[in-house]
Design brief:
By secondary structure, the protein is an all-beta fold. 0% of the residues lie in helices and 49% in strands. Strands 2, 4, 5, 6, 9, 10 and 11 form a 7-stranded mixed beta sheet that branches. It has a 4-stranded antiparallel beta sheet with strand order 1-3-8-7, with no helix packed on it.
Length: 124
């Protein structure tokens, strides 16, 4: 139901924009988030946006550099990543959950559906 894209190889300090296309109408009522997982590490929360788009939340590690947004008309979630660092290298996953009101859960087990992941590699 979710198709993530936009990953690639970028130099440190560069930018990438990830997209996550949803095939289901449930997107419009879902809290949507981005997670990432580096090799040998646990999957971690990166950024989330509530169903209305009025509330966003970011991990401290990306605050001020990443921006999450959503286009309900196009059923698409975005993650604009600027000032990329080596430690941002990971596979990025989009995920959705419904029935949580305006909250933005950070726990992976809460999310109902996931995209397949898109790889971001930041080089020096």
């Amino acid at each position: 139901q979710l198709q993530a894209s936009g990953g690639g190889l970028v130099q440190a300090g560069g930018s990438l924009r990830l997209s996550c296309a949803a095939s289901s109408g449930i997107f419009s009522i879902s809290t949507m988030s981005w997670f990432r997982q580096a090799p040998g590490k646990e999957r971690e929360f990166v950024a989330g946006i509530n169903w209305s788009g009025r509330t966003t939340y970011y991990a401290d590690s990306v605050k001020g550099r990443f921006t999450i947004s959503r286009d309900v008309a196009k059923n698409t979630l975005f993650l604009q990543m600027n000032s990329l660092k080596l430690e941002d290298s990971a596979t990025y996953y989009c995920a959705g959950v419904w029935g949580v009101g305006d909250s933005i859960p950070m726990a992976t087990q809460v999310y109902n559906y996931w995209g397949q992941g898109t790889l971001v590699t930041v080089s020096s």
